[in-house]
Write a structure and sequence with these properties.
heterodimer, A: 102 residues, alpha/beta, 5-stranded parallel β-sheet, B: 135 residues, 6 helices, 5 strands, 20% strand, globular, cytoplasm (chain B), sulfurtransferase activity (chain B), transferase (chain B), sulfur carrier activity (chain B), DsrEFH-like (chain B)
Chain lengths: 102, 135
């Protein structure tokens, strides 16, 4: 998964909603080459069962570090989720041509 | 930074961005938009235009006075625009609906901000490599 982050394909989904209906509608739209960045209240999803549904799609998942800190959410362990800063957020938008905000 | 990723300085891939901000200045989404704008400029990319839409048009009110212990969330956009030549635009229809239009008529807009229509957003998106929406 990590190796695919540098290629230009897929859609970058910016998920700033807490786990709920928006997450439910996103899951069926995700494909292998897609990436999901959890930001804002979206980082609460790191502690929610819906996270597994996101991961099962094969999409690469990252979380924005400052928003984790602001909400007191512990960074994930070895769950295949990257914690990134704003510069790496920018790099993600370079890798993905299309960016969707949820 | 992962080893397989290269920064744009290493690949000479500099992109042009358009950002759309849909929420008022004192919101987490607007803060994220600003942090993202600073980061893309630090990476060497170009920020062509920021389009303030819906409640985002409140960014244009020059009379807003934040408490001294808070960042000036309007002034910092003005400073960014001046430093990096970024075009800051508020949506005319959204501004009219919210009474922000009055500020434009009395020339009381925050420095660097101007009023324009959605056509300018469309033009900017077509001329940019990336378009991100916040809020």
């Amino acid at each position: 998964m990590i190796g695919s982050w540098g290629t230009e394909m897929g859609v970058l989904h910016l998920l700033s909603q807490p786990p709920g209906p928006v997450w439910e509608s996103l899951v069926p739209r995700l494909g292998d080459g897609d990436r999901v960045l959890l930001l804002g209240d979206g980082v609460y999803g790191l502690r929610h069962p819906l996270l597994g549904r996101l991961q099962d799609t094969g999409a690469g998942i990252a979380a924005l570090a400052p928003d984790l800190v602001a909400r007191g959410v512990e960074p994930p362990g070895a769950e295949g989720i990257r914690v990134i800063d704003y510069e790496e957020f920018v790099d993600l938008t370079v890798a993905c041509v299309r960016i969707l905000s949820w | 930074m992962m080893n397989d990723q290269k920064t744009c300085a290493e690949t000479d891939r500099f992109l042009t961005y358009t950002l759309q901000v849909n929420t008022p200045p004192y919101t987490a989404a607007a803060d994220r938009a600003f942090c993202f704008a600073e980061a893309l400029l630090r990476r060497g990319h170009r920020l062509r235009r920021v389009f303030f839409y819906r409640d985002g048009v409140y960014h244009a009110l020059a009379g807003a006075e934040p408490p001294a212990d808070e960042p000036d969330r309007i002034g910092r956009w003005s400073a960014l625009a001046e430093r990096h030549g970024v075009d800051l635009v508020i949506c005319s229809a959204a501004a009219q609906r919210r009474g922000v239009w009055r500020a434009a008529e009395t020339r009381d807009l925050a420095p660097g901000l101007r009023v324009a229509g959605l056509a300018l957003l469309a033009e900017s998106v077509l001329d940019s490599d990336r378009w991100l929406s916040f809020g």
